[in-house]
Specification:
The protein is an alpha/beta fold and 217 residues long. The chain has helices spanning 15-28, 43-50, 66-75, 90-99, 111-115, 117-127, 145-155, 169-174, 181-184, 189-205, and strands at 2-6, 33-37, 57-60, 80-84, 102-107, 131-135. It has a single domain (2-207), classed as P-loop containing nucleotide triphosphate hydrolases (Rossmann fold). 44% of the residues lie in helices and 14% in strands.
Length: 217
C-alpha cells in the first residue's frame, strides 16, 4: 500500500482538493483507495458524505489513532491511501509525514504562501520522507508567476512537482455534490491536470498507473 500525506502549514493551500482528487483518480484507475481526514473541520469527510460512488472511502480520524487507521486500511486491501491534514497542526502533520511514503505540499504562488513553506519542508525533512511542492490555484494567465514561484521554491531547497493545478471553476463546482473535476468535466483542462499529477505521482512512489486486476493492489 502506498501512503501519501498532503501537508501545508498554511490554510487555504488546497490540501483537501488535492487529496480527494488524487484518491478518486487512483480509484478510477483500479486501485482500492481511501482518504483519512485528519482535519477537525472535516472537509474531506463532508465531501465523502455527498459522494455517490463507493470509492474512495473517506474516514475521519484523529492523530493519535493514525497508526491503527493506516494498518486497518492495509488489512482491508487498500492500495492507495491519502492523509489529509489540518493547517497549523504540527503533531498531526508530523505523524502523517512519518506514516507516509511521500509528502505533497500544495502551495499557491503568492508571497505569503511561499514564505510559509519552509516549516512544512523542515517537517518532512525531519520525518525523513521525500517531499514535493505542488503549485495550486495558479492563475490561468499567470504572466510567469508560476515560474517565479518555482525558482523561489527551488532556491529554498524544495523539490517542485513538474505539473501544477490552475485556478479553474471545475475544481470548485465538482466537489459540491461529491464529485471531482475528472467526473464533472472528463475532457476538461482541470481533469487533464489531475491526470498528469496522478501519473507523475505513480512514478514517484512506484505504483502502477492503472490496475487491470483489483487483487493486484
Amino acid at each position: 500500500m502506498k501512503v501519501v500525506a498532503i501537508i501545508s502549514q498554511k490554510g487555504g493551500a488546497g490540501k483537501t482538493t488535492l487529496a480527494v482528487h488524487l484518491a478518486a483518480a487512483a480509484a478510477k484507475a483500479g486501485h482500492k483507495s481511501a482518504v483519512i481526514d485528519l482535519d477537525p473541520q472535516g472537509t474531506a469527510a463532508s465531501w465523502g458524505d455527498r459522494r455517490k460512488a463507493e470509492e474512495p472511502e473517506v474516514i475521519s480520524g484523529q492523530a493519535v489513532r493514525l497508526p491503527g487507521l493506516v494498518e486497518t486500511a492495509r488489512e482491508n486491501g487498500a492500495g492507495f491511501l491519502v492523509l489529509d491534514t489540518a493547517p497549523n497542526a504540527d503533531q498531526t502533520a508530523s505523524l502523517a509525514a512519518r506514516a507516509a511514503d511521500l509528502v505533497l505540499i500544495p502551495c499557491r504562488p503568492a508571497a505569503f504562501d511561499l514564505e510559509a513553506i519552509e516549516t512544512t519542508l523542515l517537517l518532512a525533512k525531519t520525518a525523513g520522507k521525500p517531499a514535493y511542492v505542488v503549485l495550486n490555484a495558479v492563475p490561468s494567465r499567470s504572466g510567469g508567476t508560476d515560474k517565479e514561484a518555482t525558482a523561489r521554491l527551488v532556491g529554498q531547497g524544495a523539490q517542485v512537482a513538474p505539473h501544477q493545478l490552475t485556478h479553474r471553476a471545475a475544481f470548485a463546482h465538482s466537489v459540491i455534490d461529491g464529485r471531482t473535476a475528472q467526473e464533472f468535466e472528463p475532457k476538461g483542462k482541470a481533469a487533464q491536470e489531475i491526470h498528469a499529477i496522478y501519473k507523475w505521482l505513480c512514478s514517484i512512489v512506484d505504483m502502477p498507473t492503472r490496475l487491470r486486476d483489483r487483487t493486484a493492489a
